[in-house]
Write a structure and sequence with these properties.
Layout (H helix, E strand, L loop, with lengths): L1 E7 L1 H4 L7 H11 L3 E8 L3 H14 L2 E5 L10 H8 L4 E3 L1 H13 L13 E3 L3 E3 L8 E6 L2 E6 L3 H20 L2 E9 L4 H7 L1 H5 L5 E7 L2 E10 L2 H19 L3 E3 L5 H12 L3 E5 L5 H7 L8 E6 L3 H8 L3 H7 L4 H15 L3 E7 L14 E8 L2 E8 L4 H20 L1
Parallel strand pairs: 1-2, 1-3, 3-8, 13-14, 13-15
Antiparallel strand pairs: 4-5, 6-7, 7-8, 9-11, 9-12, 10-11, 15-16, 16-17
Helix pairs in contact: 2-6, 3-4, 10-15
Length: 409
């Protein structure tokens, strides 16, 4: 089945609320083996909604609308969907009784306009709303299916899980399963070039690269009769990807780099301490956000100024005067003094220029040195990050995490 999602509501077009419904529905439909071809957002306007419905019916088998099922004059989805499917609105007595009971329980009188929620397209499958007042419905006609769900996310999700998921599972008879591989140290275009032969001949499974700040993901997706069959289709593709670009692969389970590193530290019971300058505690903050890391994380120092580097860590005045705070020598001394203070198995230092000011021709904005001392293995990596201050700081943290991952894997 091929699907279009139509989100109804002028407030969405104004940017007054974030449309989380399409994210949820796209993910769930994907799991059910249904191809999502289109996302549409349309205001509370009958003519424009009807145009979108007609377009979607020409190009897809399944349409799911969210929003526009309430009691007010601008809630027009019922009427418009019924017209597009050639159906009349008729009173659904059980829905009316639920509405009357709802207001009676609140000890409030029901306004006349609330009654419109109980008028639904004839011959439709009515979907009970257990978290609100507006029922949804399913219409099947001329080989097309339209499912109309309420707009509030809690109501929409509840109705989908209670009523729609099982209905669509019977209709679909297939599953789409994806494996997400995550890479650091290689750009999207370079990754695609390395895998061009696989991408060019792809059919089922398919391979799609996605760039994220500082890293790249690959989504390998297969369609089959069930999840196990889809996984078997994916496995040989993942093996081939690993053989080509495995050096950069840090997770085949769609995990964040910090999760991978924290898990490795905990599994191997490696204690860690960190001294940060330009990242201002960002690396320590990312690691300590992972549950259970307290068994490994020893200490974190934010030594932003030269004075702090000298007083808190013991970096020499001569080192700072001769080489400057942003240098291989300072990163090295920071990590060595950190080991003396903490005696941690693994020590990391970061010093650099995050900008936007402070750079020179010799030491431009984005220049960062990362020191790492693991047992007796000492290394300092020089990186050149690009972008604004946040991007430079984030890339520095990712680079440090990747250094940790490589040295302990």
């Amino acid at each position: 089945m091929n699907c279009a999602l139509i989100s109804v509501g002028t407030e969405l077009l104004f940017g007054q609320i974030t449309n989380t419904n399409t994210v949820y529905l796209s993910k769930r439909l994907n799991e059910l083996g249904i191809n999502v071809y289109y996302h549409f957002t349309v205001g509370d306007n009958c003519r424009r909604l009807e145009e979108i419905l007609n377009y979607a019916m020409k190009n897809t088998d399944l349409i799911i609308t969210t929003g526009g099922l309430g009691p007010t004059q601008d809630d027009l989805t019922r009427e418009t969907v019924a017209k597009a499917m050639g159906k009349n609105l008729v009173l659904h007595r059980p829905s009316m009784e639920r509405l009357e009971s709802f207001f009676k329980d609140l000890n409030r009188s029901m306004c006349e306009n609330n009654k419109k929620q109980a008028y639904l397209p004839e011959d439709s499958i009515v979907l009970q709303n257990n978290k609100g007042t507006a029922p949804g419905f399913i219409i099947e006609n001329m080989g097309k299916v339209i499912i109309s769900l309420p707009g509030p996310p809690k109501e929409m999700i509840g109705m989908f899980e209670d009523c729609v998921g099982g209905y669509l599972r019977e209709k679909s008879k297939s599953t789409i399963y994806s494996s997400v591989l995550r890479f650091f140290g290689i750009g999207e275009s370079s990754l695609e070039t390395e895998l061009l032969d696989l991408i060019t001949k792809q059919e089922n499974p398919t391979i799609a690269p996605y760039a994220k700040e500082g890293e790249v993901s690959l989504r390998v997706t297969a369609k089959a009769e069930n999840e196990n069959a889809a996984m078997k289709l994916i496995e040989p593709i993942v093996r081939e990807i690993r053989s080509k670009v495995g050096t950069y692969l840090y997770s085949d389970q769609d995990e964040e780099l910090v999760e991978v590193v924290a898990k490795a530290l905990m599994e191997k019971e490696i204690s860690i301490s960190i001294a940060e300058s330009c990242t201002g505690g960002l690396l320590a903050g990312r690691l300590t956000a992972v549950p259970g890391i307290s068994k490994c994380f020893h200490a974190g120092y934010i030594t932003y100024s030269n004075e702090a580097k000298m007083k808190m860590l013991g970096v020499g005045q001569d080192t700072l005067d001769l080489w400057g705070a942003v240098s291989e020598e300072t990163a090295k001394e920071m990590v060595l003094r950190l080991r003396e203070k903490t005696n941690s198995d693994l020590c990391v230092s970061i010093t650099g220029i995050a900008g936007p000011d402070g750079g020179t021709e010799d030491k431009p904005v984005g220049l960062v040195y990362i020191g790492l001392l693991y047992k007796e293995h000492l290394t300092v990596q020089r990186i050149k990050a690009f972008g604004d201050r946040d991007r430079i700081r984030n890339y520095s943290v990712l680079s440090a995490l990747n250094m940790i991952r490589n040295v302990i894997k």
